[in-house]
Amino acid sequence: MRTGIASAVTRVILLLLIAAGAARAQTVEMETGNAASMTNLVPQMLAETLRAEGIDLRIEPNRTLTRSALRLAAGEIDAAIVPPLTFIAMSRGDGPFRTAAEQASEASQALRSLFLFPAGIYQPIVWARSDVREWPDMKGKRVFVGPPAGAANQQIEGLLRLAGDLEPFRDYEPVRLRWAAAIQAFRDDTVDVLVIALPSGAAAVDELAASRPIRILGVPPDVVASEAWNVYLRRTGQVNATLSPEAYNGPVEMDGPLDLPANPMAFAVSADMDDELAHALTRTFWDNLDVYTETIGFLDQIDPADPFRATTIPLHPGAMRYYNEAGINIPRELKPTR
C-alpha cells in the first residue's frame, strides 16, 4: 500500500514539475522581413539559442516591416524587426504614416529596442547582358524600390536620386513588391533593376549569378564624399559599407570594391514587455554573437563596444540593465522618458 501511495505521490510530483516548467516557458510572437534576409535569419538563430532559456520565439517571416511596427505598437505581436527609418517616420508622423500622423507618433512611444544588427548592403543588381552599366542608364527602366508602404522606398529612391539624379516616374518606373516576390520578378524579367538589401556574400545573389551572369553597381566616389550623402545616411538611418569583389563565387561583374549604403535593423519589442524577458533576449543575443558570426560572417561588422550606432528607438529597461551590467555607456537619447 505504502509503495503504491509513494508511487502515486512521485507521479503527482513529476506532473507538477512538468506543469511548472511549462508555466515558466514564455512565448514571444514576432514578425520579420524576407525569409532569406538578415531580418529573418538573425531572429531564427536567436530563437534556437533561446530554447535553452525556456523562451519560445515564434517567427512569422516575409512581413512588411512598416506594418509590423504598427502591429507591435498596437500590442498585436510581442516583437518585430524595425528599420531605424521606420521609427523616425513613425515618431514624426511622416512618410507612410502621414495620413494618421498624430496616432502614429503616439504609437511610436510603445516601441522599445534591445539591440541592432546589420541587415544588409543595398545592392543594385542587373543582368550582365543589360545595357545598365552606370546609374543614369536606369532611365526608362523598371526598378524595384521595396515593398508597398515600406521604409525601403525612401532609402532606395534616395539612393537613386543621389547616385544617378533619377526621380521616380519621371526617369524610371518604381516597382513595389514584397521582398520575397522581388527576386522572382527579377528572374522573370518583369523588373530590370533589383535594389535589395542583402548581406555581403548572400546565397541569394550567388543563386542569381548561377542562372545568368549579373552586374552590381556602386555609388560614385564623388557622391560618397559629398555632404548630401552624409545627410542621406542620417535621414534614412543607414551607414557606409564596402562590397568586396570577392564576396561572390559566381559570375558577378563589379568595378572593384563598391561603396554602398548598409541598412541596420533594430530588434524591437513592446514597451510593456516584462523586464526579465527583455533582459534575457538581449543577454542571449550578445552571449551567442560569436556563434552566430560563425554562421553569418556579415555579423562581424557588429562592434560590441559600440552597439548603438544608428539606433533611434529608446531602449527597453531590461536591455538597459544588460548594457549597464556590461559597463557600456548608454546615450541619453536612448533612455526612455516615459
UniProtKB/TrEMBL annotation:
InterPro entries recorded for this chain?
TRAP_TAXI
One Pfam match, by short name? NMT1_3
Signal peptide (residue range): 1-25
Gene3D superfamilies in the record, alphabetically?
Answer: Periplasmic binding protein-like II
Q: Which UniProt keywords apply?
A: Receptor, Signal
Q: Which PANTHER family match?
A: SLL1037 PROTEIN (PTHR42941)
The protein's name in its UniProt record: TRAP transporter TAXI family solute receptor
What is the organism field in this record? Amorphus orientalis
What does UniProt list as this organism's lineage? Bacteria, Pseudomonadati, Pseudomonadota, Alphaproteobacteria, Hyphomicrobiales
